[in-house]
Amino acid sequence: MKKISILLCALALTACGSPQTSSPTLDEVFASRRSIRAYKAGRTISEAEVRELLTATQNAPSWANMQPSKYYIAIGEEKRNAVLELIGGNKERVINAPVMIVSTFETAKSGFFQGEPVDATGDLWGAYDNGLSNAYLILKARAMGFDTLIMGMRDADALRELFDIPENETVLAVIALGYRAQEPNVPVHRPLDEIAKFY
Ligand SMILES: Cc1cc2nc3c(=O)[nH]c(=O)nc-3n(C[C@H](O)[C@H](O)[C@H](O)COP(=O)(O)O)c2cc1C
């Protein structure tokens, strides 16, 4: 029994109280990434760390490699406070998150050829690419020890004005970035056979 627990400790360093010395596995990132609605106050995240995070998003695939996703980062106190006023009831959830990231995509790019949509999907391909990019962002954030909340409840027009976002970009989510202050519940997931059919 002792031998088995030593072996398990060797395999999972963190489970036995040892400091984490290596990057978490992808499965560990999936398991621990949750939408966080309470953040530790007084913890900062540097611009260099946010740059590392955003560099990871550049590995995300996009339609014909159009890379339509753009990010506007409120890392200074003044801009961060301004964003907090534009996310409705989310404000209290992310008030202590040190960074707010506004995610947009350039319209008429993914899914378009010579200015025309290639199929009925149109700009939904741009939104698709932006979602993929955001997925890389939130998973990389977790791998770096950060936490996130994607917020669809936001005032897109006011955010456009605040960051001077051009009209050819669609403002999608605001993503709060910080350190969790609470362990979240794992939401109930639909049975796999309800969402996947094998033929
Ligand atoms: C596009 C999108 C918009 C969301 N908007 C909000 C939001 O405005 N406020 C919020 O608290 N959570 C928001 N969420 C988080 C979801 O509620 C959350 O992802 C879902 O309940 C699953 O929980 P989990 O992320 O912990 O797995 C949003 C998530 C997505 C993907």
CATH C-level category: Alpha Beta
Low-confidence stretches are 1-19
The percent range for helix content is 25-40%
Structural class comes to alpha+beta
Output the CATH topology: NADH Oxidase
* Average pLDDT score: 91
Could you give the order of strands across the largest sheet? 1-2-6-5
**How many domains, as an integer?**
1
What is the CATH-assigned architecture?
A: 3-Layer(aba) Sandwich
Q: Using only CA atoms, what is the Rg? A: 19 Å
Helix-strand topology string: HHHEHHEEEHEHEH
How many extended strands? 6
Question: Explain this structure to me?
Answer:
The structure is a single chain. The protein has about 200 residues and is an alpha+beta fold. It has a single domain (about 25-185), classed as 3-Layer(aba) Sandwich (NADH Oxidase), CATH 3.40.109. It is about 35% helix and about 15% strand. It has 8 helices and 6 strands. The strands form 2 sheets. A 4-stranded antiparallel β-sheet has the order 1-2-6-5, sandwiched between helices. Helix 2 (about 25-30) crosses helix 6 (about 125-145) and helix 3 crosses helix 6 (about 125-145). The termini are far apart.
